[in-house]
Amino acid sequence: MFVLFLIHQEQSLRKKVNKMNKTHVEQKKGAAAAPLLVQMGIYTTILFVSNLISGLFPKSFPVPAPVIGMILLYVLLSAHLLKLEWVDSLGAFLISIIGFLFVPSGISLTASLDVMRTAGLQLILVIICSTIILLVVTAYTTRTFIWLRKAHLEKHKFVHQPLAIKHRIHVKGEE
């Protein structure tokens, strides 16, 4: 029954994602999406490189390969070495089934029920505390970046104003 529910949720999410992708593609008519195998190849290459980089970190400070992969993907997209259209549709599909991708890890928790019985309360407290800390740090980081952006825009206000404001173009009837 639960599997049927997951399948139904996946199908409805897939329809929503396809609808969003169609409107996204319509907005960017000039951009061509890469074929699915090319997108898989891009993601696989990034994950392979991030696996290699992850092995370079010391054992005392392990960094997961998917985290390095996300950072690499962000850097490649920000540097315009990789176009968003090349990875967009596969990424949207993977996001649409993300709940389904967590099922194996949830099932693997059943193998650790003895740990959950002995240290369950401690684990729950750690999860709650770390979530609160994460939310607070994220809020203050976002607040700081917004403040920095406003300060930067205020400093360079004249540069970022539209042309009509820069040169005070006189419009007929305006004093």
Automatic annotation (TrEMBL):
GO terms, molecular function: hydrolase activity
Transmembrane regions: 36-57, 63-82, 89-107, 119-140
Membrane topology: Multi-pass membrane protein
Organism superkingdom: Bacteria
Any GO CC annotation of this UniProt entry: plasma membrane
Cell compartments where the protein resides: Cell membrane
InterPro entries: LrgA/CidA
Keyword line: Cell membrane, Hydrolase, Membrane, Transmembrane, Transmembrane helix
Name assigned to this protein: Effector of murein hydrolase LrgA
Organism: Liquorilactobacillus satsumensis DSM 16230 = JCM 12392
